[in-house]
Design brief:
The chain is α+β, with helices and mostly antiparallel strands. The chain has 15 helices and 18 strands. Strand 8 and strand 9 form a beta hairpin. 37% of the residues are buried. The model has no long low-confidence stretch (mean pLDDT 93).
């Protein structure tokens, strides 16, 4: 490996970055790596102060200076340039309709970052037709994940507020991307921690083979058994032959969201445990299996340094639970919580190595999976204690689809900034899953969760019958 590039120190990719490069290679639409979002505020902003705040926040965020290049042997590397290109654009949509403005922002999200050693982000100050003003931010997933983006956008707003309002403190420093990168690389380099994590996941994989559960029942698994000639096949094809995607969002109101949050507080469990319980019980109901696997994402941001270092740190693993129908709802949630805590302890492990070993153990044919859906819960919100000091200023955030996904269904659950209700955002392959199927799934997952929250000592079997 070369030591420097253009005078800058060169680093290998992290496991999380390699995963993005891995699926980018076989996805025909390179915009699959784009994440586009807008954050707008219901007040008149001083655009020059906002521009300066964006530049200051950008200078504090090391990962925005990442540049990628490919060596002669085809291996990708990264370095940090000290010559950032903070080209802050401006777009005034006030003379257009909201539909036209949203269409432009979505079109920007579907333009991939191409080439080597180029900036991997774009930021535009925007004035929207509804009177809200703020920023549109587009970034490549290899440089930032959703938590990085939210952290960066909050930094911009806090810097802006410090400049224009009295008694708003300047935000604390961000942490070093390079420092966390070096820790990740040291872990990969034959550490004892990596050996322990590998042992945990190998034992988990070897315990027994999971089984695929379909969105509408076992049809795809039965088809796989028929076409493969293997009557005992337990994995199936979940995706379509097209990566073209759509985003369908369902809104849970503030009051029912609060009931879910209150339950989690009372029983000392996270909302992701409750969401997982709702999803797995739905698949249990539809397929008649106690054994359910769902892909879960882990942000790997347990420390303050990890929370504020930027970059992309998400690792995704299959999360398998075998919970019989005679167990109570709360017992099921406790099983999920305990398994999740185990995963957190071992989450630095390479997910690609996990899938490779699983395929090796169970002779799984390429393209076959056990998991019908991926779940991400995003607890970070723009509703921050520091920002609430500013009174009843309204915020809006919106995430824009990039138009491509390599997964059949990817569910992201996030809090809305205006009322703290939940948005269930389903990104899905258009040819694999349709709106009606997702509406049905959302409806029943909510029914299961609320029935369980109201009656935690009901058995899973009773809840399945009642909904």
């Amino acid at each position: 490996m070369r030591k420097t590039r253009k005078g800058y120190k060169v680093y290998p990719l992290t496991v999380a970055q390699k995963f993005h490069f891995y699926y980018m290679d076989f996805c025909p639409k390179k915009e699959v790596l784009n994440i586009g979002t807008s954050l707008t505020i219901g007040v008149e902003l001083d655009m020059e102060v906002l521009r300066q705040s964006i530049i200051e926040a950008s200078e504090r965020c090391e990962c925005l200076r990442i540049r990628f290049f490919k060596d002669k042997d085809g291996t990708w590397y990264q370095y940090l340039t000290d010559e950032p290109e903070w080209n802050v654009e401006f777009e005034d949509f006030t003379d257009r309709s909201m539909e036209e403005a949203e269409a432009v922002l979505q079109s920007w999200t579907q333009v991939p970052f191409t080439g080597e050693e180029v900036p991997m982000s774009r930021i535009v100050m925007i004035k929207m037709p509804d009177g809200f003003q703020g920023i549109y931010f587009l970034v490549d997933h290899r440089v930032m994940d959703a938590q990085s983006m939210i952290c960066f956008e909050k930094d911009i707003i806090e810097i802006y507020c410090n400049k224009v309002y009295e008694d708003v403190p300047y935000p604390k420093e961000m942490s070093s991307y390079i420092a966390q990168l070096q820790k990740d690389l040291a872990y990969e380099d034959g550490s004892k921690a990596k050996a322990r994590d590998e042992e945990f996941f190998h034992k988990l994989i070897e315990s027994s083979e999971p089984i695929y559960n379909g969105l509408e029942g076992p049809d795809r698994l039965l088809e796989e058994r028929k076409t493969s000639g293997n009557p005992n096949a337990r994995a199936a094809v979940n995706v379509s032959d097209s990566v073209d995607s759509a985003l369908d969002v369902f809104h849970l109101e503030e009051e029912p969201t609060k009931r879910l949050m209150d339950f989690c507080e009372e029983y000392h469990v996270s909302l992701v445990c409750l969401l997982m319980m709702g999803l797995r019980t739905y698949f249990q109901k539809m397929n008649g299996n106690d054994d359910v696997s769902i892909t879960t994402t882990i942000a790997r941001r347990g420390t303050l340094a990890e929370k504020k270092c930027g970059g992309t740190r998400i690792h995704s693993f299959p999360f398998r639970t075998i919970i019989s129908e005679d167990k109570t709802f709360i017992e099921g949630i406790h099983e999920i919580r305990d398994r999740q805590n185990e995963y957190f302890r071992h989450a630095n492990y390479d997910p690609v190595a996990f899938f490779a070993y699983q395929s090796q153990v169970y002779k799984k044919a390429p393209g076959r999976v056990y998991e019908p859906i991926s779940l991400t819960y995003q607890p970070m919100s723009m509703r921050d204690k520091d920002l609430e000091k500013l009174g009843d200023i309204q915020y809006k955030t919106k995430w824009y689809p990039n138009g491509a996904t390599t997964q059949a269904v990817y569910l992201t659950v996030m809090h809305r900034p205006d009322d703290n209700g939940l948005d269930f955002s389903f990104e899905h392959q258009i040819k694999a899953v349709d709106f009606k199927q997702l509406e049905y799934l959302y409806y029943y997952v909510c029914k299961i969760m609320f029935k369980g929250v109201e009656n935690p000592d009901l058995t899973i079997g009773e809840i399945i019958k009642l909904v």
